[in-house]
Design brief:
about 150 residues; mainly alpha; binds protoporphyrin IX containing FE
Length: about 150
């Protein structure tokens, strides 16, 4: 149905751009020294990132099955699968930052003089940048697949 397709498309766009915004926020917040408050904020943002990523999967699968084009349009299309692999890669890349934020938050709560080790901070920044590259790839694949490329 056209209304279902429209609603799924609207929610999908809002979710994916929120996910991208959260990665950008995390990237900005991990610049320079981190206060305990900043670490707490990062852990909170990252929790929302995880929830939104789950919703992206649910709504994305909804678009495949309830979208106007029908599931056959996507499952035989390699650009769609390239988009899925990129999405999975972004998910895997986000594991290390999530684990670091949780660990820093735990340590900062237990010890007021805790400072984030520089090597851990720069590795988290590396993973966040790699996630951004993944998002750019997803956007390229999304635009191509929506226009029928990939057969
Ligand atoms: C962060 C992850 C994602 C981003 C940034 C993203 C981005 C986009 C964008 C921008 C479009 C619109 C393309 C256009 O009309 O030009 C789109 C469409 C779509 N996406 Fe995603 N997406 C993501 C994840 C997913 C996932 C996980 C799924 C499925 C499980 C999915 C399924 C779809 C479908 C079915 C369409 C409709 C394409 C069409 O109109 O034929 N997306 N996506």
């Amino acid at each position: 149905m056209e209304t279902t397709d429209l609603l799924l498309a609207i929610v999908h766009h809002i979710l994916v751009f929120s996910v991208a915004a959260l990665i950008a926020c995390e990237s900005v917040l991990t610049r320079g020294e981190l206060s305990a408050a900043a670490i707490k904020r990062l852990a909170g943002l990252d929790r929302h990132y995880g929830i939104l990523a789950m919703l992206v999967i649910i709504v994305g699968v909804g678009r495949v099955f309830y979208g106007l084009k029908g599931w056959e349009f996507y499952v035989y299309n390699w650009v769609f699968w390239a988009k899925m692999v990129s999405f999975l890669a972004v998910g895997l890349l986000s594991i290390i930052p999530t684990m670091r934020f949780l660990s820093w938050n735990r340590q900062a709560s237990a010890n007021a003089s805790f400072t984030v080790p520089a090597a851990e901070l720069s590795s988290v920044r590396f993973y966040l940048r790699a996630e951004m590259v993944g998002i750019v790839l997803i956007l390229i694949f999304a635009a191509a697949m929506a226009r029928g490329y990939g057969y």
